[in-house]
Amino acid sequence: MSGRKQLKLGAFMRPASIHTGAWRYPGAYPDANFNFGHLKRFAQRLEAAKFDAFFMADHLALLNMPVEALKRSHTATSFEPFTLLSALAAVTDRIGLVATASTTFDAPFHIARRFASLDHISGGRAGWNIVTTSNPDAALNFGLDDHMDHGERYARAREFYDVVTGLWDSWADDAFVRDQDSGLYFDPARLHVLGHKGAHLSVRGPLHIARPVQGWPVIVQAGASEAGRQLAAETAEVVFAAHGHLEGGRAFYADVKGRMDALGRSRDDLKILPGAFVVVGETVEEARAKRAHLDSLVHEESAIASLSIALGHDASGFDPDGPLPDIPETNASKSGRERAIALARRENLTVRQLAQRLGGYAGLAFVGTPATIADEMEEWLETEGSDGFNVMFPYLPGGLDDFVDKVVPELQRRGLFRREYEGTTLRDSLGLKRPANRFFPEPAAPQA
Amino acid sequence: MSGRKQLKLGAFMRPASIHTGAWRYPGAYPDANFNFGHLKRFAQRLEAAKFDAFFMADHLALLNMPVEALKRSHTATSFEPFTLLSALAAVTDRIGLVATASTTFDAPFHIARRFASLDHISGGRAGWNIVTTSNPDAALNFGLDDHMDHGERYARAREFYDVVTGLWDSWADDAFVRDQDSGLYFDPARLHVLGHKGAHLSVRGPLHIARPVQGWPVIVQAGASEAGRQLAAETAEVVFAAHGHLEGGRAFYADVKGRMDALGRSRDDLKILPGAFVVVGETVEEARAKRAHLDSLVHEESAIASLSIALGHDASGFDPDGPLPDIPETNASKSGRERAIALARRENLTVRQLAQRLGGYAGLAFVGTPATIADEMEEWLETEGSDGFNVMFPYLPGGLDDFVDKVVPELQRRGLFRREYEGTTLRDSLGLKRPANRFFPEPAAPQA
């Protein structure tokens, strides 16, 4: 292994890829949302390629898009993260397993327990992607008429994190003595009852499962707002960032790592991994052609609905084969409209192509040969744009196979990515410390 | 296969057995609560023996027993059911996977989604053990100062069941057309939005996962109270009963199946499976000696605490090697005291032996040779005491191996138990119908 800074690579997965046209791509498995066997093979391929983690996208409601778009998207059905990742834990050995769980619509006792259990079952490979759930339809599935506001959701999330990590620390690492001769299973002096009573949560504890293998599962976050960045700087060990270009990535990186400096946290204790949509070809032209074909599989009806939302303007009357006309100002998100307009101009897209890009995937993308993709990843790593990426495959299994068979070896050849796992846990892979137990910082004193 | 009525067999499991002394038994795995590999081998052995289901015991708090007892019991730590059973789903093919989930301390949207996901991952092997959670300590882990009273818990449970089954029916079985050519992933006319608003719950839906493979996962219950029996007669497909003797089992069987008659449900649509603790020996004497040794491993301090609770009287002053003295009447549960006294008299137990029996396992037990155990099971089956059993192994792995290697072949030889699975799902094994979708009872009409 070279002494170069290493890329960390997560795979951000949906069963049929995050791209809404992917299930129609030649060779795709349109039944992947129902078929665990496909997911098992994907995870095993990623593990053979030494990926840090398999990261499962999640939502707590049907995505709130117009039914004309929804009915054409494979996102309407999917596995639940804990059941899926636990099943994957049983058929993999080293890859990390990151599940999304909401601090707004679940109880900290359940969340603490489930992640601890996944960490034990997987031998220390669990990660918790903390989300506050921004989809207002989710509230209606959990008995709430109104969605909790952003500030309150973040205040609750911060307290929720304290409770969950406190519950994980219920037992000292050496609490379970299991002395068959004397009949003592655990030492009651090494058990802590949390007794939390806070502004949002009241939880007694203790957790009735031993401390996780990793101490705590790895803490992952994705919030990009002011509150989200601050929560990440205080608590996160991985941030799933979302930036369309290197400049924005570098600004975010500097901001969040700067907040860590101010808090006295080491910069190495948090890995910033933007999502990156990667399309691999033998030539740049071939990669672009693959992407264009994939985008063309986003149904026009659904695509135009996405474009209308982005523009804040009904796009159904536009000439689909013409350039994007000038759009009058509206009350819709200015940044969304400006991004759409800039994208159309930059890539010289027709209305249909722009609509299909937005309806498929329009964030950061590396589209090229293994060498050009590795060049871009290297530039992000070396200029502090990121510590690696959460890779999104354009379609499955082909897009994953291309990355694993062609891009990973190129990254390894350059000394930017591991050839073997560093250890057995997700913390080992990411180079993160095992947290001390806040209630039992030291091992038990030897008995006299 | 003979035409005889068949026994249904579940395995009611804790990682180190339900007996609190089991972790100390010769050959036991004291680390089983932390070691998924053991559980995987247990499940695979049970599947090779054609068990109907692997049923995971569960609680939502540390068991509320005195710390002197608790510290000696392996029940202080365990895997969470969904993570464990999902992992087992990936390493088994036919055995059912029954998870306990509480209607008092969880949200119906989460429960519906997780069981649907487990059912998809396992190819139709999930079962939901509906519990209302009677441990008052659980409330304190979920932000409630007072435990919900019994009647309110059951009223909520009934509504919760309606919501969960309604969410499972969100999608017609043929909703997901996945037509790659036209780009239609699902037919919106085959999607139902539940829109439930009831006395206890408000849940919009739809569930964002396809209808479970089994239509609905198998509904399991264990309540023995008046409200519990009625809920079972209305909704359950398996009842986990608890009776110390055949007479009580037959009365319960007649009562619950009679309630089904009154409701117009077929008796075959519900299987009554009492828990049965089975200790196998080459001779009856050897089996009894194994049990006596196992009971002797319940630590005396913990055992006397259990006895005091059962008697409603401090037993710590009694001569442990003497017979049970006369106990004055108290306010404690009369039935518990009477059961303890009757047990001591029937088996001529010393105070210590009685205490260790109560601290270990004191319910229905079959202790004998494969032939005497099969005789007892056959009698229960043929006299309408039960439709089978939830077997509890006294210690692991030895107690499980004894049952699988010796009792199962004897049951098969008598034509009382399958030699091959009847199909691929838990419903196939149990002989239960796949429920119709209440919103889409018929397949979609063919398009003109």
From TrEMBL, chains A, B:
UniProtKB keywords: Flavoprotein, FMN, Monooxygenase, Oxidoreductase
Residue numbers binding FMN: 58, 100, 150, 154, 225
Domain Luciferase-like: 24-382
Keyword Cell wall biogenesis/degradation: no
InterPro entries in the cross-refs: Diverse_substr_monoxygenases (IPR051260), Luciferase-like_dom (IPR011251), Luciferase-like_sf (IPR036661), NTA_MOA (IPR016215)
Entry's family note: Belongs to the NtaA/SnaA/DszA monooxygenase family.
Name of this protein: FMN-dependent oxidoreductase (Nitrilotriacetate monooxygenase family)
Organism this protein belongs to: Enterovirga rhinocerotis
